[in-house]
Amino acid sequence: MNIINADLSFRDGLSYGNNPKMVILHHADAVICSIEDIHRWHLQNGWSGCGYHYFVRKDGTVYIGRDEKAIGAHCLNYNAVSIGICVDGNFNVEAMVESQYSSLLQLTKSILNKYGISKIYGHFELYSTDCPGSNFPLDRIKKEAVEGENCASYPGYLIKMNSGLEDDNVKIIQNKLIEQGYDVGRCGADGYFGEDTLKAIKKFQLDIGICDDGVVGPSTWNNIIK
Asked: What are the domain boundaries of the chain?
């Protein structure tokens, strides 16, 4: 998968603080276009620019639109809790080619794994629209992207409270705990293992009947992630 930073210039800057809980999939509703076309259209709408975080061309090349930490402009009411991916094409009138699907699948899997999430939606499932089109392989990508990714492999080291060190695996744990109703503190899934995350892990360990030492080893990891 080839990922290219489109280096777009956004008007009036972007708002940050996106906290991804899901991936939302779109089509461009155009048989062929570029991320620069998308950017121009969205600027013409009066937006800051390209509303999507990623754009996948038919040849499988992936372009970065907005930074993942930037709030998107692609699905009303869900822009601050999602990663928006747009796919080149109009899938009401055409089918997706395999090179494009392969990159979309890899990209979606990597995002799910990065944030420890498993929810994937087509735009129409959250908003009144036909996007991403009747021929979009939504059921297929939901099945294939989530298989194995919501059970991210144990990283191979004990995860425990540290002093100000950020860890992507801590973020995965925090997101999974939040999904299951545990409170990891006001900062949410920030990747830092502090007192609130420690309390949440100990509570989880007690709830499932294992030693509540607050350390995430293979047993705690597998039970949290599954």
From this structure: 3-151, 168-225
